[in-house]
Amino acid sequence: MNNAQFLEQFKAIELSLRVELELSERDHMSFNEMVYRSRRRVFKSSYHQEILENAAQLRNMLSHKHDVANIHPAFAKQFEVVAQRILTPLKAEHRMTPYRHVERLHLSDPLNKAITIMRKHRFQNLPVLLNDRCVGMFNESTLFYALQATQELHVDLNTPVEAFEGHLSMEDHPTHLYTFVSRSTTLDAIADQFSEFLTQDQKRLELVIVTENGKASETMLGILTPEDLIDIYMQD
To answer: What is the pTM of this model?
Structure first.
């Protein structure tokens, strides 16, 4: 990255902030103030803030004289990563576990299959599908709540998943919550959803199901869990 490329990219970041904050050409606000006022998660990271503060200082120097300094390759690489995160934010479709790799159940599958998958992969939640649509979620507590609700439920390893249909709901689970997002939803927005429920004492958002437009009536494209976002935000 040369000086001209750096200045061009920095200008693009400034513009994205001005658009977000709805600032007109007449509104004067420092770059650091815009970063502070931004609601985007990427700007709340102390790691990213330090890089952007250094970039702002470098921009000020180069704005007066383009050849006053040369950008160190290590810093250029850091800045490039942060800039791409800001200007081309990752979306659900970029980090989701795609449908073909999702361990899942169908209503006709036996209980034994659910137990085997959960033990082997240590999964806590398994999507239940009907015609490639996610119509429910089988989790560790499904059997418990089913048995608690009725004394007439006779269960063995061959009992089909549909026998628990009344306890597969993704909306009425006592402690877990599941939601749908579109493939174009940003990872920042999804991370905000997970964080929001971490601060609550009620339900916990376990995972999100990705579809074309974020509707339950659509074909499932993949899933995202909090663990899928850890590497993205480990430096936040």
So the answer is: 0.77
